[in-house]
Amino acid sequence: MIMRSEDEQPEALPAEKDDQLTTRRSMLRIGALGAAAVVTVRPGIAQAASSALTCSIPVPQSSQAGKWIKHNGDVVNANSPNSYAPPTSPLKGEDVKNSLKYGTTYPGYTSQKTAAYNEYIKDLTVGKQGYTCYASIQSPYRQ
Q1: Are residues 30 and 63 in the same domain?
Q2: CA-based, 20 to 30 A from 24: which of 4, 54, 63, 76?
Q3: What element of type H or E holds 92?
Q4: Backbone angles phi, psi at 38, to 5 degrees
Q5: What is the percentage of the chain residues whose pLDDT exceeds 70?
Q6: What was the pLDDT predicted at 99?
Q7: Overall domain count for the chain
């Protein structure tokens, strides 16, 4: 600020310069906030990426234990035509990602069973077991 010598009171800046200073300060604040946000979000994305590969999806969900999976992904009674016994354990997120993205089969299962399980997984909705894992695998940040 420019000071007048006679009374040591700050002299008013012209309106144009005052606006420039305000704009610069605002930009600095925004830049500082943006940098902090990047530093904060990046570790979260990295953690989510690793957790997507370690999560699991039960097929079918535990409330439907004993049911089988039809070729189109529907859950049906055991031994129904065109249906398959469920996997012996939940499917791993990494295996699901590879199967959906590259067409690989699940370890120990035929391509027909894998296709049926994938149809079931694609039909998962919010609130069902495995949905969060499936959603995280589908996220564009997971490559």
Answers
A1: no
A2: 4
A3: strand 91-92
A4: -65, -45
A5: 65
A6: 93
A7: 2
* Whether the predicted pLDDT of 49 surpasses 70: no
How far separated are the first and last CA of the chain, in Å rounded?
Answer: 53
Residue 45's domain comprises 13-53
On whether both 77 and 130 belong to a single domain, the answer is yes
Whether this prediction's pTM lies above 0.90 is answered by no
Distance CA 128, CA 59 (A): 11
- Taking CB atoms within 8 Å and a gap of at least 24, the contacts of 129-135 are 129/57, 129/58, 129/61, 129/62, 129/63, 130/56, 130/57, 130/58, 130/59, 130/61, 130/90, 132/55, 133/52, 133/55, 133/56, 133/57, 133/93, 133/96, 134/57, 134/96
Q: For 111-128, how does the pLDDT look when each residue is reduced to its tens digit (9 = 90+)? A: 999 999 999 999 999 989
SS3 category, 14: coil
Q: Tokens at residue 116, please? A: 């049926």
6 found inside a domain: no
Residues 89 and 100 in one domain: yes
